[in-house]
Amino acid sequence: MMDINQESDVLLLVDIQNDFLPGGALAVHAGDLILPVVNALQAKFDLIVATQDFHPANHESFAANHKGKKIGEQILLDGLPQILWPVHCVNGTDGAEFSKDLHKDSWRGIIQKGKNPKLDSYSGFFDNAKREDTGLNQLLRGLGVKRVFVVGLALDYCVKFTALDAQELGFETFLITDGTKAVNLNENDGAKALEEIQAAGVKLLQSQDLNKRHV
């Protein structure tokens, strides 16, 4: 068992929003199964921060904004390879809201990302080109965070890139594997993401491996 340090460990909830859950515009298969895991984990942490995909309707990662293009096709967007997605997590819509079954009372901050229509933002820390900073790093530093524990949706995109950036920024980073699910546009994308995350030095564990330390 690993004891949680309430003063320097953060639980980072990545994009647990309606459009990524069953019935949503970009639903992750069985994504709702992480909700009880995440809620149970929240009871163990004093520091909890969430990220929120928050796109304008004209976001250029949406296939609908490119005549003749289909969901899943790849284009160049501002010089970067970009998968075209269905319209999702548009600000002001229910799809952009957090799941009603997700406990939110003890969050210390919400970081919105993907607001620039010309740049997608998988990571909670930066856009995909690392041209713009979301403010998450500064928030965590201000809270005195040393270790980051990542859960959320989806493993092979936003969760992966958030965990990789946290590790690169110098946080000791952990991915809680039963607190995430993959999109799997291609078979085994989730498994490949876990391999990539581990290779970068992020540690994998399960929610049952964490213990709330009582002082």
Summarize the structure in words.
It is a single chain. By secondary structure, the chain is an alpha/beta fold. The protein has a single domain (about 1-55, about 95-210), classed as 3-Layer(aba) Sandwich (Rossmann fold). The protein has four helices and ten strands. It has helices at about 35-40, 135-140, 155-170, 190-200; strands at about 1-5, 10-15, 45-55, 75, 80-85, 110-115, 145-155, 170-180, 205, 210. The strands form three sheets. Strands 6-3-2-7-8-9 form a six-stranded parallel β-sheet, sandwiched between helices. A two-stranded parallel ribbon has the order 1-10. Helix 1 (about 35-40) links the parallel strand 2 (about 10-15) and strand 3 (about 45-55). It is globular, with a radius of gyration of 16 Å. The two termini are about 15 Å apart. The model has no long low-confidence stretch (mean pLDDT about 95). Its EC number is 3.5.1.19. Belongs to the isochorismatase family. One of its GO terms (molecular function) is nicotinamidase activity.
